[in-house]
Fold these 2 entries.
Entry 1:
Amino acid sequence: MTLASLVNHQVRLAQRPEGMATRDHWKFTTEAVAEPGEGGVLVQVLMLSLDPAMRGWMNEGKSYIPPVEIDAVMRAGGIGRVIASRTPAFAVGDTVYGTLDAQEYKVFAPQDIRRAGLVKVDLAMGSATQWLNVLGMPGMTGYFGLLDIGAPQPGQTVVVSGAAGAVGQTVGQLAKIKGSRAVGIAGGAAKCAWVVNELGFDACIDYKAGPNAVREGLKEHCPKGVDVYFDNVGGDILDAVLARLAMKARIVICGAISQYNNRNSAPAAGPKNYLSLLVHRARMEGMVVFDYADRYPQAIAEMSAYLKNGRMKSREDVVQGLENFPEALTRLFSGANFGKLVLEVARA
Amino acid sequence: MTLASLVNHQVRLAQRPEGMATRDHWKFTTEAVAEPGEGGVLVQVLMLSLDPAMRGWMNEGKSYIPPVEIDAVMRAGGIGRVIASRTPAFAVGDTVYGTLDAQEYKVFAPQDIRRAGLVKVDLAMGSATQWLNVLGMPGMTGYFGLLDIGAPQPGQTVVVSGAAGAVGQTVGQLAKIKGSRAVGIAGGAAKCAWVVNELGFDACIDYKAGPNAVREGLKEHCPKGVDVYFDNVGGDILDAVLARLAMKARIVICGAISQYNNRNSAPAAGPKNYLSLLVHRARMEGMVVFDYADRYPQAIAEMSAYLKNGRMKSREDVVQGLENFPEALTRLFSGANFGKLVLEVARA
């Protein structure tokens, strides 16, 4: 089989959604696979990471990275395999991580290799799905957000929302490893049971259990208040935690998935209880994982060791087929995924 | 004149207000002035500090200090003169600062002296009104909030709301002294002119000049974004500043006067643009001045020197007569005061 005979199926952004994205906001295209030029590399996409941040990339306007342009292939991080190389940096057969986008193949010109963050990954350190989870962007987000911004002390109470999700599972387990108490917030009894029984959190609050479930759960499980809150969701849950802060608490603002599909580009619902920051001399701070890129290797090595010695577990929710990209992405926002959501594009 | 012949007029909290406090929420009482016991002291109240925080003290429920009880004399900091003393710590004629409350005389038992923070003040370091302003709680709030929490670097842009008020005038002038740019936000052309022409701020935005005045003013006067925002007001102005943050910005949450009179104890309007903290890796942190009490003397000495060498100016808005306490307090919330609001209870 020559490269020229390969067809690249792609998912492109057809129009910017108001509210939740549906299949109508995407279009599917095909094109021939190009040979890499001098210094370039061709990667077959194996798995794509589906992340809440993608919803933000679909909106117009300035954010921490530029939006995906209309008609462009949707931006996505993923794991792939090198199938042609004209650079000594990569050999055919190498497993790589980088911005591969929602497609089956990506050809990189030399200047694009660095821009896409293309790096070799060692499958001895973790599986391909773990490289998109604990060892990938969500894991790095949890690691640096918790340790650098949240900075929990031993014995302090760390609360994390989206506890069964990609970032949340890392945050809670890492909090435990570092000697803190970990209290999760997740949707549904099954996720909560897994977070406590498998991941070893001290408690998990099911936010779907009733209108006062979070408030009452925090009161029960955080009797001395919340020292660190790692916020992935925003909205009412953020307000409930603000009402339970300990003195000098730190809130890590990592995301606000409950607010990403607001219609008409309405801003997020603001945290009504933010003056609790004043009463408790507390701090709310935003973080973007890319700022820590030069420290990823050390963090990955540490996390890989935890995976190997069993102190950290991971769970991925794998959906198969690039054609299912639109529906798979919406599962993040309904909370239907259980674990880090991954789209398998080709068998490894 | 014997002490026994003195009558102490007092203002007590009659009922907790919903929304703005009116005269109906207060009652006026009189009682005889008691002699101080062994180790105690009797102080005649000269001036009281009227502060936005007082509105919070009138509400039920936990905050950074307990609420004022119904029928209690309203809590207020003030300047007074010792008129009888049975402790070597104070002599008759000493000028003192402390929690004197809304009344004409306060007798302190020994254990109350420390609780009320009663200290001698040196009128050579600043006038009595300055001791309630730059050298008092508002000045200390501005000093530690700006320098410890905001931590502006030379050349960075500091924005402060309530710029003509007690805290705001200190924050902006101190920012200039430390080499930063200072941009104020105040209500009305007269206040803005004073802030720029007298206090030396680089610019001042009149938030009453139109619905987009703050947004456009920030764009014009903070072309590189806002590095430090010292927030005294909350509400729409906080949102407008959030939309103009520089990377790694710090927001000092000192108060939210726009939200203190919300009806039915409704929480503050939350900052809708809080996700700007994420985009800009920025921080929002609450502060309460009492935490810095052990560092007041050094800060007061520094500020007194600035007053003397003319690098810092102060303006106080003095209302006369304890009987005018209710109406004077409401001036804070309409923005009718121009400078630090002080109630003169007796001539010094």
Entry 2:
Amino acid sequence: MSHASNMPCQSNPELLTELFNLLQPHLAELDDFLKKQIGSFEEEIRDHVAYCIDTSGKRIRPSLIFFSGWAGDKIVSERLVKLAAVIETVHLATLVHDDIMDEADIRRNRPTVAKIHGNSTAVLLGDALFSHAVYLATQFPTSEVSERVAIAMRNVCTGEILQTMQRGDPDISLATYRRIIDLKTAELFQVACFLGARLADRPEDYVQAVGKFGRHLGIAYQIYDDLTDLIGSEEKIGKTLGTDIATGKPTLPIILLREKLDDEEEARLRQTLSGECDADIDFWLSKLSETGVVSNVREAIFQEIEKARGSLAPFSGSRDVELLHTLSELLWNQVDALQSHRVTV
Amino acid sequence: MSHASNMPCQSNPELLTELFNLLQPHLAELDDFLKKQIGSFEEEIRDHVAYCIDTSGKRIRPSLIFFSGWAGDKIVSERLVKLAAVIETVHLATLVHDDIMDEADIRRNRPTVAKIHGNSTAVLLGDALFSHAVYLATQFPTSEVSERVAIAMRNVCTGEILQTMQRGDPDISLATYRRIIDLKTAELFQVACFLGARLADRPEDYVQAVGKFGRHLGIAYQIYDDLTDLIGSEEKIGKTLGTDIATGKPTLPIILLREKLDDEEEARLRQTLSGECDADIDFWLSKLSETGVVSNVREAIFQEIEKARGSLAPFSGSRDVELLHTLSELLWNQVDALQSHRVTV
């Protein structure tokens, strides 16, 4: 808790409201822009596309874009709206494909595309969304946007492939886990911040720094997301806990827990991850809590958030940095609030 | 047979050899270029990528590119090699995804990626190939390449979605069938020719005309490909015939046959396509033959090839046009040769 003690430690609804109010006109423009894109698709698949471009997402990547190149509290930048549409569409395409792989039936309280239309259509619809995102990226005057987006897309997919390859492997190293989440999540956070600042014509050193901010925040966010699979957060209430363990996906809590088990327990963890025996989720949740692993994971997230902030330290005082800092505070507070939901079995 | 009588009617191995010899240095450079791309992917997935970028394909789209902007009989254009790599990689990515949808175990005499690594990895690997193709496209000085490639990719996927939606529908119209093959196949042929000529700095009217050539040739090629699912061609010997009927995919032969059946036979066709009864392939093959539908389909292909050639008529005399004409002659001869393999039950 060393870091948390220096920071606001309570979940802060005012902060969320403040950021939401600031972002609202930008996100409304983004929603309009995304809806207009539906008309670019052939008539027969417009309903499918509309279903994918739903407006219930958290829009984290767009928020990073708007803040990284903040145009002013009441000014919506058309360029940033278009960039946000590119990055969010890439993200939505990956979700459509993710749901095939995870054999997920439900996302955001609605049946997944794969569930409604079958895997074939879901594969192709994800491809069509990817393609359209790239098309939008090519509409910027320089090729930097489409180039960076293409590289980020390749990296996101690579991270997901590595994750698929590691599934069921109890011996995954910490380095491999970090590499996977860097590719599959932090990459798109990084490019969102980098290009947001670039398209707002910010100086090169800030563009680079804000890219680093995005990368560290992305890592923090993914570790947080993995942790909430084990510890109920407000968002995840009602969701089945422990699906990662049950489906053999080793995340940071499991990797750290591995070191703290006796031989018999370690053997049991191996069998669980490899699918040789069913996952006794309650047992593992209590183990995570009593070994202090949950605290260690939270600490790891705080460290990443501090690194993210550190990369922006030379630019403190600007409105961009202030907003990005506030966004990171929101995540910090969410992680901190997890404490009160700590699992007791 | 009205058109065929004006044209060379024999399969011509000399023609194939001549074109192959001309293309060989270009295709060798393309293979080298594609192999070099493997190093751009993360180490763990390089073997997967190498498996996808195999060198046994027909390389039709690259051939169209090289001929559309022919640099000279001994001159290999670096730009066209790079463009060929972009288009071929997009094509290879679609094959990886196609094999998931078709639940295909074998392609080009090897197990499919989906068969070896599972559907999840195949989805992601296709995505990574798409992304890398786009990245290569962004390396051209203008955004026209990446823009056109992105649109073509979206259209290819859309065509495949429409095809998936029509699967099992015995009432598919001729117009819908043509629209599907235009999107899923002709689009990439069109963009290959268009950009091949563009990157070779050809005049605008030729660039447009060669794009049209590609589109018509693509339609001809897809109808031919669909026909060979029913009539054994040299390439397809040893392959199971009639898989399209058996899996409810209505193609031109089936659409034309539908009009020529009595009520009882039509009901049987409907049940077959919708999967209500098993496909009696021998019955349908003999029906196709005795009703003259095979000849009608061949005629439709010849007409498309003539349209393709017609769009290049104003430019006849140039080496580009001569080579594209020869390529279309190869397809013509292959279609013509199908006659001698006409099915007898």
